[in-house]
Amino acid sequence: MKKQMIVVAGGSGIRMGTEIPKQFILLNGKAILLHTLERIAEEIEIENIILVLPESEIDRWVALSSGTKFENLKCALGGATRYDSVKSGLKLIDKDALVGIHDAVRPFVSQNTIASCFKMAEEKGSAIPVVELKDSIRRVFTGTSRAKDRTKFRLVQTPQCFNAARIKAAYEKPNKGNFTDDASVYEEAGNRIHLVEGNNENIKITSPEDLKIAASFLS
Fold first, then answer.
1. pLDDT (tens digit, 9 = 90+) per residue, 141-185?
2. 204: domain CATH number?
3. What is the domain range of residue 124?
4. pTM higher than 0.90
């Protein structure tokens, strides 16, 4: 099956403490978003990349991408929530394809992670990359907390890959407002989620501390 990718770039710069949306912040002299797109473009089997942006950031993207290989990238307008943004991007994805949905601020996803997700999605209909927890975890209650077995939990990353027809159908169902990622939308529609091993470098850059870690990966 053909492989296509949605890159969701609807974030703000609030947690970064900047007026510039985090996907446009420079990392080693280049916007995080461009780092991410370049990494995805290295996967030669991906034939179509859809970039989802807020309408307010289209002009910034046009200026940033001018003269790059991404200047003619298809764009979809983001919505009020990530759910709305992904739903908008899915309209530009072919039903007979496999689709990956990736956070614009995860520029260090490995080629192996991308390939593994698409391979599993082709075989099983879905795949999300996960990594093991390294720290102890506790569940917090009002006034108390309780230790949990970390071996029974995983941290979830992107790209989350699906049979396009199935994820499109899932996004046509009513939005319950409690979805944290695409896998939860797919699962709520009665589908099964399959896990593949992600890569620990595939961090989501959302804070100044994350930006420092990301810079260390490039040093």
1. 999 999 999 999 999 999 999 999 999 999 999 898 889 999 999
2. 3.90.550.10
3. 3-218
4. yes
